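2024-03-11 09:14:02 INFO worker-7 job=invfold-0412 stage=load source=structure_tokens
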């Protein structure tokens, strides 16, 4: 179990960590430093709330992948069992929703108009990756179990 948790930590830093952490920092540049030297207004509080809700969703779903699915969030080390409980009973992709909430929270927090292009681009990339890579793999790996699940639960919300 320790190995599985360490692999999940590694892939969390590598994948959502870069998408919601490193790349936004590089894109926003000086705005990151500037906003923390200014006062916190309504956008910062609202953005923080959305970000932290997304972070909680992401962490909860990654832990579900480890404990219930016996795998990681990475396609290189996928789950061995199909995860269908918890948030996965409402959406087939709550982890992506959590990351998108984190990005939306950052866009609101930093009040950076150009950052919205990144947010939309990541959302489109997530959708394409889900359609072209993840869903075909899940159909192949879990067959009828995934087919039944995908008929019952929406892809997004």
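2024-03-11 09:14:09 INFO worker-7 stage=emit residues=157
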């Amino acid at each position: 179990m320790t190995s599985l948790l360490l692999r999940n930590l590694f892939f969390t830093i590598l994948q959502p960590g870069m998408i919601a952490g490193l790349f936004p920092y590089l894109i926003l540049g000086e705005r990151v430093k500037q906003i923390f030297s200014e006062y916190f207004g309504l956008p910062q509080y609202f953005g923080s709330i959305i970000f932290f809700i997304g972070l909680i969703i992401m962490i909860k779903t990654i832990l579900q992948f480890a404990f219930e699915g016996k795998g990681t969030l990475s396609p290189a080390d996928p789950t061995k069992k199909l995860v269908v409980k918890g948030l996965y009973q409402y959406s087939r992709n709550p982890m992506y929703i959590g990351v998108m909430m984190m990005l939306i929270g950052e866009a609101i927090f930093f009040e950076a108009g150009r950052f919205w292009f990144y947010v939309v681009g990541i959302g489109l990339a997530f959708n394409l990756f889900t359609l072209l890579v993840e869903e075909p793999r899940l159909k192949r790996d879990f067959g009828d179990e995934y087919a039944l699940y995908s008929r019952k639960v929406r892809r997004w919300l």
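2024-03-11 09:14:09 INFO worker-7 stage=report msg="The chain is about 75% helix and 0% strand."
2024-03-11 09:14:10 INFO worker-7 job finished
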